[in-house]
Write a structure and sequence with these properties.
Layout lengths: L2 H5 L23 H12 L3 H14 L3 H21 L6 H17 L6 H23 L2 H34 L12 H24 L6 H16 L9 H15 L3 H12 L5 H17 L3 H11 L9 H20 L3 H21 L2 H18 L5 H14 L2 H17 L3 H17 L3 H14 L6 H22 L7 H21 L6 H14 L3 H14 L5 H22 L6 H16 L10 H9 L4 H12 L6 H17 L3 H13 L5 H18 L3 H18 L8 H17 L3 H14 L4 H18 L2 H16 L6 H16 L3 H14 L9 H9 L8
Length: 859
């Protein structure tokens, strides 16, 4: 018999007929087939048993075989459900329920309906037992017990009519080919089993209610009446002794100890099987415990059983536990400290034996008994009992009760500095909360148990679970947030995730072999949250934790350099407010970078930082670059960049006399890659040109830029057309900066025709065209300029900077065309419609226009 069949199908007092072989299951005609199925179930081979039943059902050897195989399939699926872990129970149970429902629909009047109903009632009763001890509150289990009772009574009524119905149906010829043939013996046997199962269900129902409650008394009295109905069972049936033992149990539960004793003594006058003898012994122990004859019970245990009695009969093991629980409670009531300690020791010893030797079903009942005893006598402060109460509460599924019990156990364990038990009960509650989809609460507990006892073996593992839960919350928040928008829940989720990652590094940074992964996640999160300062710190820590010979070190350094770049860019916009902070940050970035084994392509980054943010250190940068350029092994690409930077260092120092010869030398170098070298210098100078803010400084860099441009034009054929057009645009800006307007005019005119949708090009061309038209008073150009600016106005959002610039230039063009009244009317209309007049960028110009005569054509 498998553990499952010992633990799940037996009702409360081991009275289920399944404990007695043929008496508890439906008859299968072929003996070999019965043995085959029993062996499969004993081994837990539910899939094979299910497959066999389904195949036999399709063969349709006979109506009786088809029905009985359907009954067996229901039994297999129900047992599979009860033997499965909680997460996997529902699917096989659902299949069993579907089989039962389909049978009811397909064969509403079939004589085999009684067989199916009986088996379904047994399954319902077994599921109620499992729910009562493992899963849910008593009310859920009681609902199923009531359903089983209804089914058994219905089957009993049905079986009483079948003997009269069969001859009548035969004589009238109303029997169909799919009817099941039941002999009178089979009908009587099934009726006896049904009535016994009804007795078991009523007795179990009574036990689920509190002692001395009316509900309990009523259910037990009904069970007693049912037991007395079974007195007529033939004496060779095992049900005889089961029914008599159940009758004795009923008397004890009703408080009639004398009648209970008489029934037990009468049973002992007859030879009994060993299992039945052990069950009778269990009932005797319960009777003596109820009568407070503790000495008699203890003497009986001492003289009748060996120490290894545990595991032979679950009812006996529970009865022993009940006895020692009562002795312990008695010592607590009498305030006998020595007896209380001994009672506690004895109870825990018995519980330990049950855990070691009995099947899970009996262990659950033992733990439930102890938890109930604790509730009755209050919180004793004993950690082992608090742990047991917490475990029992978690198994009931009552989350509020489980949380309270776990909190008590946790508090006591922490007070006693019992780290293993504290972590155990905390983990248990955290897991329960997660199963209930209370992720925030579960996360809080996983963090709590980890950082309270960080030295524990599983502390780091539990905190990794916390990291995973925080990531789950963040993912959920991201999914719930509007696209590309932040939200309060999202911000909170990011804060929590960041806090957990930081916490993990603080507590487990030295011991976690996977800490680099944690740091990488923390760095990415800080970058997403735009916390540049923190990103720099984390990136540097990550790079420092990786050995330089590790392939990951290079990537970490690149990431740190990127973090520094982002941080410096952010501070650059704020340097006017805190220049000292900005300069310290720049120096810090340079010092850190210069101490790292940088990837080849990053070796010049510290020099760029000096030139971009600390121009006064250009001399230092120049010396470093000249030394670097003396290295014959320097690659071509890096050498080109170094040469460009050297030019920029001279620009920063204002040494224009030295720049021109150096540029001349660079532009005249031939050979492979010459065009790329010139292009690199050109692009670097253009970047510098765009960064300059004063007209004089822009003009100086523009002149150098045009020197390179002159040389680069000789290499025009080596560039793709799109790239070359972009270089042409850059050069046109330089031409404007140095005052070579005519050349710039020609260049931009060509570019404007090539790129009608490039806004930057169209705007630049519009400005050049307008300025040239007004300067030369050329009517054709003035008309072209008007058309160009109207196009810009049309394609610009109303009141945008481009829109206001277009309006301003159109006013100037009206004035230049000798139509000042139109210009004035347009300006006045704009003033009425848009009093702000374009804000700080344009309002000043408009005010001058309104104050000055239109013919002055203010700019």
């Amino acid at each position: 018999m498998s553990i499952f069949r010992k633990t799940c199908w037996l009702p409360l007092f081991c009275l289920s007929v399944l404990a007695f072989g043929e008496e508890g299951s439906v008859v299968i005609p072929e003996p070999w087939e019965k043995v085959f199925l029993e062996k499969l179930l004993e081994r837990g081979e539910y899939r094979l048993a299910e497959k066999h039943c389904r195949e036999r059902m399709t063969r349709k050897d006979s109506p009786t075989m088809a029905v009985e195989m359907a009954v067996e399939l229901l039994r297999v699926l129900a047992e599979k459900s009860l033997a499965s872990p909680p997460s996997s129970r529902e699917e096989p149970w659902k299949q069993a329920e579907e089989i039962y429902t389909k049978f009811q629909k397909d064969f509403p009047h079939n004589l085999g309906r009684a067989l199916m109903d009986y088996q379904w009632g047994v399954a319902i009763l077994a599921r109620a037992r499992q729910q009562f001890f493992e899963e849910t509150t008593p009310d859920d289990a009681r609902a199923k017990i009531r359903e089983a009772i209804r089914i058994f009574r219905s089957v009993d009524t049905r079986l009483q009519t079948i003997p009269q119905e069969i001859p009548r149906r035969k004589s009238h010829g109303s029997r169909t080919s799919d009817d099941v043939e039941l002999s009178v013996w089979e009908i009587v046997s099934l009726q006896n089993k049904t009535r016994f199962q009804l007795l078991v269900a009523l007795l179990f129902q009574g036990e689920t209610y509190p002692a001395e409650s009316m509900d309990r008394i009523n259910a037990i009295q009904q069970a007693l009446a049912q037991a007395q109905l079974l007195h007529g069972i033939p004496g060779d049936s095992p049900l005889v002794w089961d029914a008599r033992l159940a009758e004795a149990v009923c008397y004890r539960l009703l408080g009639d100890t004398e009648s209970c004793r008489k029934r037990l003594e009468a049973m002992e006058l007859h030879p009994q099987s060993e299992p039945m003898a052990l069950r009778i012994a269990a009932e005797k122990l319960r009777l003596w415990t109820l009568e407070k004859r503790y000495a008699t019970a203890q003497e009986f245990l001492k003289n009748s059983f060996a120490e290894d009695v545990f595991g032979q009969c679950g009812e006996l093991d529970l009865a022993i536990l009940e006895l020692f629980l009562r002795l312990w409670e008695k010592a607590v009531e009498e305030k006998d400290e020595d007896a209380t300690k001994q009672g506690h020791t004895d109870v825990m010893a018995v519980l330990d034996q049950i855990r070691k030797n009995d099947t899970p079903r009996w262990v659950r009942q033992a733990e439930r008994l102890l938890a109930q005893a604790m509730e009755q006598q209050g919180n004793s402060g004993d950690l082992s009992l608090l742990m047991l109460a917490a475990d029992s509460a978690c198994r009931t599924g009552d989350l509020e009760k489980a949380a309270l019990a776990c909190e008590k156990a946790w508090t006591r364990a922490v007070a006693l500095k019992d780290a293993p038990n504290a972590v155990l009960v905390g983990s248990q509650l955290a897991a329960i909360l997660y199963q209930q989809n209370q992720i925030n609460e579960s996360l809080a507990w996983f963090r709590k148990i980890s950082i309270t006892f960080p030295e524990q073996t599983d502390a780091m593992k539990n905190h990794h679970v916390a990291v995973a839960l925080a990531a789950q919350l963040l993912n959920d928040a991201v999914d719930a947030a509007p696209f590309q928008k932040t939200s309060e829940p999202l911000e909170k989720a990011m804060e929590t995730y960041e806090a957990v990652l930081v916490e993990h590094y603080r507590y487990f940074g030295k011991s976690d072999p996977n800490i680099l992964d944690v740091l990488e996640k923390l760095e990415k999160l800080s970058r997403i949250r735009k916390k540049a300062n923190e990103t720099v710190d984390i990136a540097m820590i990550r790079a420092a934790r990786i050995p330089t010979d590790d392939p990951r070190h290079t990537e970490a350094v690149r990431s740190a350099l990127r973090a520094w770049e982002e941080y410096l860019t952010q501070l650059a916009t704020q340097q006017a407010e805190s220049p000292d902070t900005f300069r310290r940050a720049v120096r810090g970035a340079i010092q850190w970078a210069e101490k790292q084994p940088l990837p080849p392509e990053e070796t010049l980054r510290p020099v760029r930082w000096r030139l971009d943010y600390l121009p006064e250190t250009a001399t230092h940068a120049e010396k470093w670059l000249r030394k670097r350029l003396d290295d014959a092994t320097l690659s071509g690409e890096i050498r080109t960049e170094a040469q460009c930077l050297l030019v920029l260092t001279l620009v920063s120092q204002g040494r224009e006399a030295e720049i021109a010869p150096l540029l001349e030398k660079l532009t005249q170098v031939g050979g492979s890659g010459h065009a790329q070298t010139l292009d690199a210098i050109f692009r670097k100078l253009y970047e510098l040109f765009r960064k300059r803010t004063t007209e004089d400084s822009r003009k100086k860099v523009a002149q150098l830029l045009l020197v390179v441009w002159t040389a680069l034009q000789k290499e025009a054929t080596t560039f793709p057309e799109k790239v070359w057009n972009e270089r042409q645009r850059m050069a046109s800006e330089a031409l404007l900066a140095v005052g070579r307007t005519d050349e710039a005019f020609q260049e931009y005119e060509q570019l404007a025709q090539k790129y009608p949708k490039r806004r930057d090009i169209q705007l630049a061309w519009s400005r050049i065209l307008s300025d040239e038209a007004i300067r030369g008073k050329n009517p054709d150009l003035l008309s072209r300029a008007q058309s160009q600016w109207r196009d810009v106005e049309k394609h610009s959002p109303t009141q945008s900077d481009d829109w206001w610039e277009a309006k301003y230039h159109l006013a100037l063009l009206y004035d230049a065309l000798g139509q000042p009244e139109k210009a004035t009317r347009m300006v006045q209309t704009l003033h009425v419609l848009h009093p702000g007049m374009g804000g700080k960028n344009f309002s000043g110009k408009w005010q001058k226009w309104l104050q000055a005569p239109p013919t002055t054509s203010p700019k």
